[in-house]
Each structure stands twice: as structure tokens, then as C-alpha cells.
Amino acid sequence: MAAWVKTEAPWYSGTVVSKPKTGPWVPPYNSYSLYLNTDQAGSAGLSMYLGYGGGTTYTAAFGGTGTWDVNEWAHMAGTYDGNVVRSFINGVEVGSVLVQGGITQVGGDLFFGLQRPDVDLSRPQYPWEKFKGAMDEVRLYDRALGECEIKELAGTPCVPPDTTPPVIVPTVTGTLGGAGWYTSDVTVSWDVTDPDSDVTATGCDEVTISTDTAGVDITCQASSEGGDASETVSLKRDATPPVIQFSGNAGTYAADATLAITCTAGDILSGLDSVTCPEANAETSFTIEAPPDPGPDPGKSKSKKSKSGKSKSASAKSDSKSKSQKGKKRSRGRRR
pTM for the full model? Predict the structure, then answer.
């Protein structure tokens, strides 16, 4: 049930809608009714009355926390969903009572602004039985309206309740190598969104990993009216290259020496993807050849030949002279 009302007094302003029983005025009095009254402390409020269970049981969801201005329009509503009776003032729930059982059907007509037709309106102790003021847009439904529907009837924009937790999306920036290892600085940033309600985030600031690590977890947590969410990113960083070592190299070797050079490679953090590191370990023989003899210097050979020629020429002259002298002697001997 729902209606716009403008009251002449802040309390005891009377019944808005009523479905009373006929016959003796005994419980449950009504199948249902919506009326303005006060609690025992005198606080003005709204009651959603309900007879239920098919017997004499009844209850009322009274809300005294919601007030309204006299001679100003206010929206009043009451609902029952089979489990809870609720009352609303200007779209805000002000009272509720747990109830289990169907609405008791008591017969009778439906009344607006009056509790029941045979009420003695002269009785001052029951002023709430007759409404004092004006009302408009009185509505009855065959189902319980939701909170948003009531807000919209009251002219209040309704934001549907958030039923989903925030969405967390990580972004990882860096150079990814083999086996999930990053080989550079790694930056993690987060995008946290919830279109339906405000978000509170923890650990979702941008983070940069700039040192080698065998594994680190970075977690972003967020919560909203729709629930909690969490995302974790696991990172491994190894930006240090492998270490290669050679051992057994003597540096200098004899011609018939044996080589025994060993190569080892390793990476203590991320290990090795592949290794190409041959060993030199074998008996090796060498052949050493002397360079060819270049022979005498051509210039020096000519000089020696010249001297030799002079010697030969001198010798020839000596022989010729000797022969000449001999010939002369012989010639002289013949003349005798």
C-alpha cells in the first residue's frame, strides 16, 4: 500500500487505508491497514498493520524515526512479502516486524481515510481511526514492492543495491624471458572498478620490482557494497646474465703437450635455458719446420767474381811473360 498524504497534525492523523473485518470488533480487527499514530513514548510515526495466520494474531510495523512536516505532502507506504512487514516514510524504511503466515481474510470493504464504517468518531481516545488531512495517489498492489520501487513512488532517485564485488585487473610491464622470468625492471599497476558503489582499495598502488628475486607476490584487495575482491600477481626477476668460467688453461704449451681446458656455465637464480660450452681435452701433436735457406746475397757474389777475375788475369799475364822469356832464351841459343 502507498499514498501521498498531507496531515493537519504530526501525530494521530488517522487511517490512510484499511481492510477491516465485519462483525464484533475483536482481533484481528483488520486484514491490513496503513495508519498514522504514535508509540508509547508519544513519538509520531507510521504503522503497517497486518492480521495473519488465519486466527486472531496480528502485528504492526511501527516506525517512529521518520518524521514529516505538517501541511506538507509526504509519502507513506507499507509492504508484506510473506516474511517481513515494513513501513516507509518518504521512501525510507522506518519500521519492520518478522511475520510468518498468510494474510488473514476477514471480509468487509476497503476504506480510505477511515478505520471502519461503524467507528464512533466522537471517541477522542481513537482519533487515528479517521484521517485528518488530504491524500492523493493511493495505490494497492498484489505483491510486495521493492525498496527501489517505493523510492521511485516517493520521488526519490533509486540506485539499485550493489550485488557484485569490485573488478580488479592487473597490468604487468617488463621484459619477459623464459620460464616466466623477467629480465628487466617489472612494474605492476591495478585497475579497480565498481560501477554500482564506492570502492575502498588496499595494496593497489603501482609497484616496481628493480632487484632480482626468486619470487614475490603482490596483492590488491578492494571492497564495495557488493562485496570483497582480491587479486595476486606472482613475479620472478633475474636480470643478471649467467657466469662462464674456463679452467685448466696453462697459457703456454710444449709441442707435445696435452690440453685439458674445462668450460663451466651457471646461473644460481633462474638456471640456464641452454649451454654451448665445449671442452678442450686431448693429446695434440705439432710439426715444426725450419724456414728455407735464402742462399747468398746476389750483390756480394758479383764482388767476389770480380776479384777472382783479376786474379785469373794476373796469373795469365805471369804465364805469358814466363813463356816469352823462355822463347827469347831459346832464340838466342839458335843464333850461336
Answer: 0.50
pLDDT higher for 50 or 309? 50
* Contact of 205 with 199, CB cutoff 8 Å: no
Amino acid identity, position 157: P
Omega within 30 of 0 (cis) for the link into 160: no
DSSP labels for 250-312?
-S---TT-EEEEEEEEE-TTT--S------EEEE------PPPP--S-HHHHHHHHHHHHHHH
Q: Average pLDDT of 137-162?
A: 89
CA distance 250 to 257: 10
Count the neighbouring beta carbons within 10 Å of the beta carbon of residue 32: 24
Residue 213, exposed/middle/buried by CB under 10 A (0-12, 13-18, 19+)? middle
Q: How far apart are the first and last CA of the chain?
A: 194
Domains of the chain: 2-153 (2.60.120.200), 167-237 (2.60.40), 243-283 (no CATH)
Distance CA 227, CA 164 (A): 6
Reported as a single tens digit per residue, the pLDDT across 226-241 is 999 999 999 999 999 8
Q: Which residues pair with 187 in a beta bridge?
A: 173, 208
Using the structure block, give the residue that is written with the C-alpha cell 795469365. 316
**What is the greatest pairwise CA distance in the chain?**
219
From CA 153, how far away is CA 146, in angstroms rounded? 11
- Cα angle 71, 75, 80 (rounded to 5 degrees) comes to 140
- The cell numbers describing 192, all together, are 579497480
Q: How far apart are CA 206 and CA 201, in angstroms?
A: 12
CA 182 to CA 9: how far, in whole Å?
Answer: 75
